[in-house]
Amino acid sequence: MVPSMTSPYATVPLVSFDGAESIRGSLYSPDRYRNLESIFAGSEGRSFSVRGAGLSYANLSFGRGSSSIAMTQFNRFLDFDEVTGVVEVEAGMTLGTLRSGQFLGDGTLKSSRAILQLQSVVVWPQMFMVKNQFQDLNFKEQVQFVHLFHPVHGYIYCDRLTNPEVFNLTCGGFGLTGIVISVGIRLGRLMSSGVETETIEVEDIFQLPKMLRENSSKFDLLYSWHEFNTQNNWGHGFLKAGRQVEMKNDKANGDSCDLSALAKAKQLLSEQRGRHLPMSLLFSSSVWLMNLAYLKKELFNGKGQIQPLVEFLFPVLQKTVYFDLFGRPGFHETQVLIPFDKFEAVMTELRSGLKKFSTPVTLASCKLFTGRQELLRFIGEGIVLAMNFPRNDTSAKLLDWWDQVVIEAQGLPNLAKDSRLSAEVVKKCYPQYDLFLEQLHKWDPKRIFQTAFAVRLGL
Ligand SMILES: Cc1cc2nc3c(=O)[nH]c(=O)nc-3n(C[C@H](O)[C@H](O)[C@H](O)COP(=O)(O)OP(=O)(O)OC[C@H]3O[C@@H](n4cnc5c(N)ncnc54)[C@H](O)[C@@H]3O)c2cc1C
Description:
Blueprint: E1 9-15, E2 22-28, H1 33-38, E3 47-51, E4 66-70, E5 77-81, E6 86-90, H2 95-100, H3 112-123, H4 133-136, E7 143-150, E8 154-159, H5 164-170, E9 179-186, E10 194-202, H6 208-216, E11 221-226, E12 237-245, H7 250-266, H8 284-301, E13 303-308, H9 309-313, H10 321-324, E14 331-338, H11 343-357, E15 363-369, E16 382-390, H12 393-408, E17 412-413, H13 423-429, H14 433-443, H15 452-456
Parallel strand pairs: 2-4, 3-4
Antiparallel strand pairs: 1-2, 5-6, 6-9, 7-8, 7-9, 10-12, 10-13, 11-12, 11-15, 14-16, 14-17, 15-16
Helix pairs in contact: 11-12
């Protein structure tokens, strides 16, 4: 039988995880190179978007009139260099699958040499990727090279020395430079997959910068959580700090817990989130009660708990029902980087803004950030504050007001998290917006890769 040259294709609902955008669109799911290439045959004038699991909060992987290409079937392990710790995998390989080695023996490996190499990946002591932005910087630092496909340029290898401009534009380029086929990622060695945790009370949010700084050198992992729904003791919360420890029977305990957390994440689908609930169940009173109970529980737990690393890094993976409670209307996430010297003034403004707009804050969490900001990458020096709200008119108005506070404070919003940000706001916050635009149009003058996100931001 002659194998089909066309890629599997369907018209499907495409929804952003935050519920902001929902369309019926074309989705290709190629499973081999010739299928991928055939999508572009005679495609003059059409536009495309690239998609992984489609779990970004904002509308990054689809758009009206743009055909999405899901790379989930390009999911093979390709190579591993035991000396440098660089693993090469295809773009559809999830970090969870790579971490667990679950694909061992599933027939996707190219050769017996690769199987041997893979076994050495799996036995590498508890390898993992970025665990702490403050110490390890962002994910781009772990990416060593990229194999990219673009219908005009063909297949291109790029790294920091070869085609550096394309490499730089592709990492944090929101899928607008072409299709990443495979990547080389530098892995780090972990002592164990267990974390000894400590919960430290934050009584006064204005003390947070000092507390984060003091504790950042004492712990491997650090974030904070806050209650923003009461005016009394506003911002009361805790620092969650973690230190890597050798766990007894580490392999058995740590890995089994890791896998259960990751298995839950695997089942997440943007199209399924909250679909049975026509409205949000997160009201001011229910959120306040939920947060109070959570705060009490965390403060009670105190010191010396041992937790699997994945659960510590992604506590929300254990509570994915949280996202369903927003119902079909969905939620807003805002994640902004606030310069250290502006933190106090921004918190004072935020407190009055939340009082004025009166909308429940279902999550508020901070962490330290460091690194040099470039192009449209969410990186820089300061404190990152993430907040969630049920999606409705009041929270949208609050966030329009919040944009101005962030601009005034020379803060940086995370573009991948907020479906609502306008080109005007992004231009004011990202000094290299014009440079990104110029480099992108130089690389792809026809702008073949287009998404709702790119259109909204004028890219
Ligand atoms: C429950 C939950 C918890 C989360 N927690 C965190 C968190 O703690 N920290 C955090 O940073 N994020 C978090 N996120 C967001 C998370 O970063 C994204 O959901 C996820 O990393 C995006 O991966 P994806 O495969 O779903 O990408 P998609 O949403 O499919 O795509 C993301 C972007 O990458 C591009 N892209 C995808 N594949 C390719 C390719 N092969 N070639 C070129 N471009 C491509 C797309 O065009 C798009 O612009 C969370 C999301 C969920 C649902």
